[in-house]
Protein backbone atom coordinates (compact mmCIF):
# COMPACT_ATOMS: atom_id res chain seq x y z
CA UNK A 1 0.00 0.00 0.00
CA UNK A 2 2.74 2.46 0.95
CA UNK A 3 4.60 1.83 -2.33
CA UNK A 4 1.40 2.31 -4.33
CA UNK A 5 0.71 5.61 -2.57
CA UNK A 6 4.29 6.75 -3.17
CA UNK A 7 3.96 5.92 -6.86
CA UNK A 8 0.85 8.09 -7.08
CA UNK A 9 2.16 10.98 -4.94
CA UNK A 10 5.95 10.72 -4.49
CA UNK A 11 6.01 14.19 -2.89
CA UNK A 12 4.10 12.94 0.19
CA UNK A 13 5.99 11.05 2.96
CA UNK A 14 3.48 8.19 3.31
CA UNK A 15 3.41 5.74 6.21
CA UNK A 16 0.78 3.05 5.84
CA UNK A 17 0.70 0.59 8.74
CA UNK A 18 -1.51 -2.44 9.23
CA UNK A 19 -2.43 -1.80 12.84
CA UNK A 20 -4.15 -5.18 13.13
CA UNK A 21 -0.76 -6.90 12.97
CA UNK A 22 1.30 -4.60 15.24
CA UNK A 23 1.18 -7.02 18.18
CA UNK A 24 2.87 -9.66 16.00
CA UNK A 25 6.10 -7.68 15.41
CA UNK A 26 6.17 -5.00 18.12
CA UNK A 27 8.19 -6.99 20.68
CA UNK A 28 10.93 -7.78 18.15
CA UNK A 29 11.31 -4.10 17.29
CA UNK A 30 10.74 -2.39 20.66
CA UNK A 31 11.59 -5.11 23.18
CA UNK A 32 8.25 -5.60 24.93
CA UNK A 33 4.91 -7.08 23.88
CA UNK A 34 1.66 -5.23 23.30
CA UNK A 35 -1.85 -6.62 23.27
CA UNK A 36 -3.77 -6.82 20.00
CA UNK A 37 -5.67 -3.62 19.33
CA UNK A 38 -9.46 -3.77 19.49
CA UNK A 39 -10.26 -1.16 16.83
CA UNK A 40 -8.86 1.31 14.35
CA UNK A 41 -9.71 4.10 16.75
CA UNK A 42 -7.76 2.43 19.57
CA UNK A 43 -4.77 2.06 17.28
CA UNK A 44 -4.78 5.71 16.22
CA UNK A 45 -4.96 6.86 19.82
CA UNK A 46 -1.73 4.98 20.60
CA UNK A 47 0.27 6.90 17.98
CA UNK A 48 2.40 9.75 19.32
CA UNK A 49 1.63 11.85 16.24
CA UNK A 50 -2.16 11.59 16.35
CA UNK A 51 -2.52 14.94 14.59
CA UNK A 52 -1.30 13.28 11.39
CA UNK A 53 -3.07 9.94 11.86
CA UNK A 54 -6.13 9.10 9.81
CA UNK A 55 -7.90 5.76 9.85
CA UNK A 56 -10.07 4.66 6.96
CA UNK A 57 -12.09 1.46 7.02
CA UNK A 58 -14.19 0.03 4.19
CA UNK A 59 -17.52 -1.13 5.62
CA UNK A 60 -19.51 -4.10 4.26
CA UNK A 61 -21.94 -1.72 2.51
CA UNK A 62 -18.97 0.03 0.74
CA UNK A 63 -19.23 3.13 2.92
CA UNK A 64 -16.04 4.49 4.49
CA UNK A 65 -15.60 4.92 8.22
CA UNK A 66 -13.07 7.67 8.94
CA UNK A 67 -11.33 8.33 12.24
CA UNK A 68 -9.23 11.49 12.45
CA UNK A 69 -8.53 12.83 15.93
What this model shows, in words?
A two-stranded antiparallel sheet has the order 1-2. With 69 residues, it is of the alpha+beta class. The model has no long low-confidence stretch (mean pLDDT 85). The chain has helices at residues 2-8, 22-30, 40-44, and strands spanning 55-58, 64-67. The radius of gyration is 14 Å and the shape is globular. The chain contains three helices and two strands. 30% of the residues lie in helices and 12% in strands.
Defining key terms:
69 residues; alpha+beta; two-stranded antiparallel sheet
How would you summarize the topology of this molecule?
Elements: H1 2-8, H2 22-30, H3 40-44, E1 55-58, E2 64-67
Antiparallel strand pairs: 1-2
